[in-house]
Write a structure and sequence with these properties.
The chain is α/β, with parallel strands linked by helices. The chain folds into 2 domains: 201 residues, Glycogen Phosphorylase B (Rossmann fold), CATH 3.40.50.2000; 181 residues, Glycogen Phosphorylase B (Rossmann fold), CATH 3.40.50. It has 16 helices and 12 strands. A 6-stranded parallel β-sheet has the order 2-1-3-4-5-6, with helices on one face. It has a 6-stranded parallel β-sheet with strand order 9-8-7-10-11-12, sandwiched between helices. Helix 9 links the parallel strand 7 and strand 8. The longest helix is centred in the C-terminal third of the chain and has 18 residues. The protein is globular. The chain starts with a helix and ends with a helix. The relative contact order is 0.13. The structure holds uridine-5'-diphosphate.
Length: 408
Amino acid sequence: MTGIELENEAVTLDRYVPLLGAEVEELRALAAPLKGRRVLMVNSTRLGGGVAEMLNRIVPLLGDLGLCPRWETMAGDREFFEVTKAFHNALQGAPVPLPAGAFDIFRAWTASNLARLDLDSEEVVIHDPQPAGLIGGRRQSAGHWTWRCHIDLSRPSAEVWQFLEPWISQYDASIFSSPEFAQRLPIPQYLFYPSIDPLSEKNRPLDPAFVQSVLERFEIDRRRPILTQISRFDRWKDPLGVVRAYRLVKRYFDCQLVLAGGGADDDPEGAAVLEQTRHEAAADPDIHVLELPASSPLEVNALQRASTVVLQKSLREGFGLTVAEALWKKRPVVASAVGGIPTQVIHKRTGLLAHSVEGTAYQVRYLLSHPEIAARLGEMGHEHVREQFLITGNVKRYLTLFLLQRKA
Ligand code: UDP
């Protein structure tokens, strides 16, 4: 059994009562008519990225509520994940050519996963484009099929969307992370915010001595401001833009930059972006480019808690769980006004938004010179996450969807 499964075994609703009180009872009441209901979640990786992060908690919580959840992942080789990464980039609006034979490779892996996976379930929730074609195997199951899209679909490539759309239209429902991502589809579209788990190792309170030990391990100086971006090394997360913004801030403040992230199993581009970032940072000992193992929740937690300002300078972003994680820890956040970020960072209320390298640097400088405002934004950000973006709220939305579909 892996460490993740062990952590999941402890995910029970009772543990949320001290934090959420009556909301836990609401969940039990909603789940009561769904007892024994079989739910299947399918995505493309168990480790790395926000989807895996959420499923790791939602699946055991649904089980604790009396449903019978399963979690399956798409199998694929490097070629398949290069294709799905290219789809992901194109759907987020990048004008990059698709690999040769992309559509055939996608169809072939869809077929082989259909032969491999047991898709029989009363509720099937397919996450993102990689497994979207599995709807072709619907005959195996009489259940309801929902496509849950986590990526920024505000400007999708017509070529890739037209390829996927005939599959998506066969689902019973779709879920997007922001109203801006809604598409012209013949099926109902729901808005679900992604969410974080306040009790996971990633988010739970930490002993300050542990935080200090993590900083020492990575040779980060606590006495000077720490700017941090936690993200996979991915062009959409714009690590090079973060370095440029830091350099502008550095002219005025003796600060440090932490760029920490690992790869995801389904992201073959990560190594190249990491290499480029390292190269860019090489001459400056105050830039810490940290390659974290895929599962390093306590380190991420500690780095977020120790940050003076948390950055999320994404160029596109489905939601950006890292933002909610930082806000939950009462950190002041400066983030790009893209994708799902503005639902979390309400400008001047729960953080600061920016639209460029220069804008990011400006907002960071503002926070470094106004620590009392930075602290207030952090407090407000924490409350906003409590109200909107906790895992229990997400579980509630799934339960409501399953109840609605039961009636349909
Ligand atoms: N994450 C992590 N280690 C890393 C990089 C990211 O644990 O090295 C986590 C991060 O804390 C967050 C998730 O992975 O929980 C990333 O989700 P987000 O929505 O921010 O971005 P995605 O990677 O899904 O595009």
